[in-house]
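During the first year of the project, the team set up a workflow for recording each protein of interest as an amino acid sequence followed immediately by a discrete structure-token representation. This format lets reviewers and collaborators read both layers of information side by side without switching files. As required by the reporting guidelines, we include two representative entries from the current panel. The first entry is reproduced here exactly as it appears in our internal archive.
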Amino acid sequence: MTETSISIDTELLAEARKIAGTTTNQAAIDHALRDLVEREAAAAEFDRIVERELGDTKVTLEF
């Protein structure tokens, strides 16, 4: 594991700890990073499935 020094919004970090249910800054940051990576992987998999199933059919999703 690499040690990195960064400036973080303390209020945002506290809110992230609360949402993630973690008690440490490290755990909250790890949780957020894992969540980001998992969401991107899920979005990429979704795109692959849509391409395979629908081919050239245009699909637009808005959130």
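The second entry, processed by the same pipeline in the following quarter, appears below.
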Amino acid sequence: MMQRKQQQQRLRPCRFTPADALVIASCLLLLTSTSYAFHVGGTGVILHSSSSRSTKSTSSSVSLLEMATVDEAAADQKNQVLDVNDDSYDVVKVDLNDGRDYPIYIGTSFTNEQLSDMLTSHIDGKQVLIITNDRIAPLGYLDKYEKLLAPHKDVHTLVLPDGEANKNLEILQLILDKALEEKLDRKCTFIALGGGVIGDMVGFAAAVYQRGVNFVQIPTTVMAMTDSSVGGKTGVNHPLGKNMIGAFHQPQCVVIDTDSLKTLPDRELQSGIAEVIKYGLIRDSALFEWLENNMDKLLERDPVATRYAVKRSCENKAEVVKADEKEAGVRATLNLGHTFGHAIESGSGYGKWLHGEAVAIGTAMATTMSAELGWIDSDLVERTYRLFEKANLPLELPLDSPMNREIFLNYMAADKKVANGQLRLILLKGPLGNCVFTGEFDREAMVNTIDEFVAECDGHSS
């Protein structure tokens, strides 16, 4: 299962500037069936191309996109930390090149003056609707932001039920009802105060209300801070598939105060770390190595380690979104483990798994499958498993899981990355920090991986 397949390719190098590399590579994915590998480093960018492949394939129409590591001074970052002061903060820019650029403010214990200045500078109109959930509201965050904005804006609030099970059209309707009842106009701004579920729903509501109004993200979970609040993906779930109804709608800004993680339950903290590990696996080997050495600090909510992990994740996400905002190519690689993971969430019933927990199992499946294909060494599989275990994340389905091969394949067939009837997956290939987005793989390896993970489940025997 872990045998390494040797591949011989003749490479033709050509040089591009670092600023253009990701955009060029994403365009090449769409325009040709040639396989490309691009390597980003401190000395520039080299783009290699090859039209020959030796992997087993079910189609020749989908190209391989081989993403390389982004590890500036990797050896120095294993134990790197930031100099964090109470009143300092970082700004990561999401550069979309068309006037829709926006900042991600990352700090620890922002002052009220800082928060007020940040928010009011990105809210043009007078009307504001702050939406949160019934878990966040009692913690004082809603009152805090309402009082901050009240002297400057006409503030309305809405509290929704918490949880993935409530990320649907019915709950979305409550946001739109509130906006209409308060007669909010096209200059209004929605504020998403909460985790990924709130952010996705509020962003989608902002995208469709009066054909689009502004919104601001104030994430309060690791998952939202490091992934879902950045990049403009919004939407709700459908009984037949996760996130199948939505839109791309970018926020005006993202305000991340890592101090809010003090009230986050341990299980949700661990869930969010799954997305941080993902960046290390697909494109940032230095971050992966740093996580291997600093996972205990993250679990202990060390403010310096937490802020570093959040900032590094946002930098990775911003770079990819700049290259491929609408997920036509490179951005799809951010979904490592998500095709398997979404099937687990949908097939098990929304709300039974936290998103990061399902992604952790899905990433374990993608890693196992990559090894079976001979695309990665067994050592990387072992390191990946150990890191997820350090984060207290699940790596296998429970015995009472309803999942079986048929359920997996049915939900995976409806995945958003399916193109022209062909399932495409994000898999690891090569050294740590490299991955591929491809539909060209041995289907037997995928089925074998699914069977291995469902072998002990109740659903397998039913």
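For the second entry, the following points were noted during internal review. The chain has 15 helices and 15 strands. Residues 123-252 form a domain with the Rossmann fold fold (CATH 3.40.50.1970). Both points are flagged for discussion at the upcoming steering committee meeting.
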